[in-house]
Design brief:
- There is one protein chain.
- By secondary structure, this protein is mainly α.
- It has eight helices and no strands.
- Helix 2 packs across helix 7.
- The longest helix has 33 residues.
- The N and C termini lie far apart (59 Å).
Length: 182
Amino acid sequence: MNIIHELDFMVLNYIREHLRNGFLDNIMPIVTMLGNMGIFWVAVALIISAKAKYRRCSITMLIGMIMGVIIGNLIIKNIIQRDRPCWINEIENMLIANPQDFSFPSGHTMSSFIASTILFHYDKRLGIPSFGIAMLIAFSRLYLYVHFPSDIIGGALLGIVIACMTISATDRYIFNRYKTAR
């Protein structure tokens, strides 16, 4: 095993041995569901689009989420093909269904950090609490033993990069053209 793999398992085992409890066993599957297919973040984007001042943010979030699926879930996961910790060390009493796709990067974390970074760019008052939700969703993936810490870090960093690229591209190619067309 390499050093990252050893550190990953050290963190996961620490969580299982010292943080697992009945309360979190009930809460973490619910928290992780917020990140399923980015549904929570898509819902946030659609809700905030009701206000004209957040429409750019909403459109940028939706484009960022699509880019995340393409880049992270369809391309990188299938190139890296990293096994999940629950595939390597089968554990009893999994709290959620065993995921069928590869582990790196964490899609839940990536989509959460895409959305949070974009929200923060447009409105820090929305962005700051959204990062708290993003971190909670990311932690839930560790707690549930379906991702390694390095998957989470990779997902967060990739999410931030995709968000920044999406903000730049939408500002330059969508909103700038729209502004000049009026």
